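Batch manifest, entry 17 of 40.
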Amino acid sequence: MEEKNTGKVWLVGAGPSDPGLFTLKGKQVLEEAEVVVYDALVGQAILNMIPDTAEAVNVGKRSSNHIMVQEKINELLAQKAKEGKRVVRLKGGDPFLFGRGGEEIELLVKEHVPYEVVPGITSAISVPAYQGIPVTHRDFCSSVHIITGHKRAGKSYDIDFEALVRTKGTLVFLMGVSSLGDICRGLLEAGMDAEKPAALLIRGTTASQERIVATVGTLEEEVKRRGAKTPAIIVVGDVCALAEDFSWYDKLPLGGVRVLLTRPKELISETARKLRALGAEVLELPSIRTVKIENNEKLHRALAELERYDWLVFTSPTGVRIFFEELSSQKMDVRKLGHVKIAAIGGGTKKELAKHGLYADLLPEIFDGEHLGKALAENCRAGERVLIPRAAAGNQELVDALQGICSVDDIPTYDTVYESGRLIDERAELENGTIDYVVFTSASTVRGFAAAVGEIDYTKVKAICIGRQTREAADKMGMQTWMSQKASIDSLVDRLAEVHKGEQEWSRPD
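Output type: structure tokens
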């Protein structure tokens, strides 16, 4: 048994970049981490999974550019574990496939530090797959070989090229972009046919992935003509000729699209999942955070007198969640709501109510505060009492619509706090033009986004907005805006797909 105060290290493979290729065990371990030591090749969506409470250390390993040398990384892992911390060493791909995981374990063993290894999906398999290249195919080859393309400065390759050629299998070179010419020449000198198909696969499993398919004899020249980028892998073999017919990722409705998603962190995953299902690469910026108002005496008094209310009105899933948390904290249950009619602003709020076995009596045709207020005004009888537990900065149009009809208790239950990303520079991403669209789910996310990224040229931001009020907030910033037909996540995602399709058709040459 481990000592109570002894920490532990997990070597976790983060996969190639796409968060859907991050293993379930890796995600679980990461969510429980107290210290995370990560490399430059870890995907941004996976970096967003690092807990806010964890110490995050960027050691920036990529090719020959290291923020921290390997020996110092090894010492850091052991030191943090000896402090009693749960330490995750987060590495792109797989820890044991040219990831130097073995070197890190050597010191942990020497220092008697407990550890585990969580394998990751290697780019050697996944990146070709996302580009339509099966690394094995019974009609073309019966083996695949993974080779490091990296060589130490001033030294020649310690690779038996003749043996590789004799295998007649698919060859995958990792970390070999800077040595592409040497690799191709080594294969040709070892007797490989100059017409053998070969490819450079760039930024695989991301929206910006590219492939350059040529032959062993022409790949270096073609890459020079089109420009080499990293990270990338080199694939050599007849299977490369299948890429054009077998490619699939870029053909998805949002394939090649990079989306910045702004939502409260607790609500972001479902929206991101829907976007990723259509092929988008999603960068999550939880630009607002909801904070429950503690010791909420006004709400507690209302809960104690629920029998006095005729309507209970919810304007967000967060409002529902906090209401029932407080109901439980006051030792009350849903039987207190037996006579109360319930109104909800939209589908997400309706779905959150259903988790508690409750179904809304009233939903407006258009999911926003103004139309919810109008619908309530038409359905409330004069003198009825209405309880609205919601955000402190709630929409005033809802309350205004009930003036002179109902008695309204508009009680703040949570505050909306603006925040910025901790590990990703969203401003730089926007200024560099690497974000295609920004998705906004409320006017407050627009304001939170502006607070997070600061002064930029907002006229270049393409904003997909969930409703009129959200669009108006984005318009005020000078953004290019489009609005979903309905104020729902499904409609928002559909609108993004429509806008992207329209822009593709507009830019397509005649």
